[in-house]
Amino acid sequence: MNIVFVSSEAAPFAKTGGLADVCSALPVALEKQGHHVSVFIPAYRQIYDAHLPIETTGIGYCVPVGKNEVWGEILRSTLPGSDVPVYFLRHDRYFFRDGLYNSGGVDYQDNCERFVFFCRSVFRAIELLNIPVDILHANDWQTGLVPAYLATLYQNGRAIGTQTELFGSALAPPQTPEKSGDRFWDKVRSVFTIHNMRHQGRFMQQEMDLTGIDWKYFTFDKMEFYGQLNLLKTGITFSDAITTVSPEYSKEIQTDDFGESLQGVLRYRSESIWGILNGIDTAEWNPETDSNLAAPYNAETVFEKKPLCKAALQRECGLPESADTPLFGAVSRFDWQKGLDLVADVIPHFVESRGAQFVILGTGDPQLENRFVELAARYPKNVAALIKFSGALSHRVEAGLDVFLMPSRYEPCGLNQMYSQRYGTLPLVRHTGGLADTVIGASDETIANGTANGFMSYWGTADDLQKTVEWAVHCYDQRKDAWRQMVLTAMALDHSWTKSARLYSDLYERIQMLG
Ligand code: ADP
Ligand code: GLC
After folding, report:
1. Which residue ranges form the domains of the chain, and what is each CATH number?
2. Which residues sit with their C-beta closer than 6 Å to ligand 2?
């Protein structure tokens, strides 16, 4: 099949989180299964920092954005280690900026306009590059307009899914397709993957004019959300199939607790929602070949070499080298989602009661950044606050820690718990989303039957986290054999993309059969 992946991020070109990892690893995995895949992202300033060859295709174009015709250019590269082409859609006034979505924590005022331009450009670029398409696979709110453009402007208002049947509103009179007289788009079907329900791309309703989509779609079953334009909802309501990045999260988002006010819309489309667990890029995250590590290792050498990585990390962070001190840590966006405020709450207890050490690598919420900086100043021998974004360092942290902390309030999938397991670092997580699907918490029973591969907390409170960390410290100090077994169990897990890519293939095949 011919699959076009549309995303606002793809590693190593542009990344703020796991979306980028998924949108570069999954296309490569699909290509390995025999599909033809191409990827489209905006030409951000950051794409040049990857130091990979980027060339121009020499193709320029114009697309309507509101009343204006906006010029764009198509650049090209390939995803590392593959022939999968990545096309960058360039308009420097929109994308050549400090951050991807914001600067200094403040969202860009023209985010709607920027992603209208991007989504419209995808269609124009596909036509100009003459790329065959069976499936358009869009990701998160930034690309929510892609399924909408397909169904409205390019397919004359084709009806989608249960909701349309229920409300009948998308059975619109035909509009002029942009490539008139051409059936190129007729058989194309769309998939929309939700990586995070909380970020929805909500804008003032006037911005509907920028989209070029008829106002008749500005309804509660399509693009409207409490009077605003909602691009995540747009992706959900116009796509042929919806996926989320873990089976557990696909159920959670249909509940009042996790649906972020879109649970009703999701329940209407329940039959079209698939939960497919993310995999990880096992070439990039391989402790045996990882050139960032002081002493690369595998399951046979882990107990000899991993301590060298731990010592190197302690040195790098200015913490005293100590093999017997439990070293906890995290690599994360500092965001309410991640529950790192709870980590900050419990650090003093474990520093004072056990002399434990903590290495926290991340950026985001300035208050939380300050809290970790203050904790590092208060406990210089125990806490290192690394307030930056560094891929290389994130690998050394993964390898050096004993326990990776992820007490997320919600977690659509989460990748770091899987990176941790592959590096023999036990993840300590909260039972939610993909964390619940990938971690089996240590208990007497799971230790005895050899399935334990991490630690599980349930309630999302500092008290509960403290108890779980207490249990991890106990296992670290008193149950050394069990610990070694858990490390080996975790390292033996198969988190590669193979299985999930097959599920995506199945899904693509099914929706191709839709009318
Ligand atoms: P999310 O996408 O919600 O942030 P994930 O666990 O899916 O969470 O993915 C986060 C990705 O971003 C991982 O690859 C992680 O290593 C990376 N990451 C987050 N913060 C940093 C940082 N400060 N430096 C380097 N990598 C980071
Ligand atoms: C989101 C989620 C994270 C998920 C990632 C990739 O950013 O927060 O849980 O792993 O997308 O799907």
Report:
1. 2-279+498-512 (3.40.50.2000), 302-494 (3.40.50.2000)
2. 17-19, 22, 195-196, 245, 278, 411-415, 434
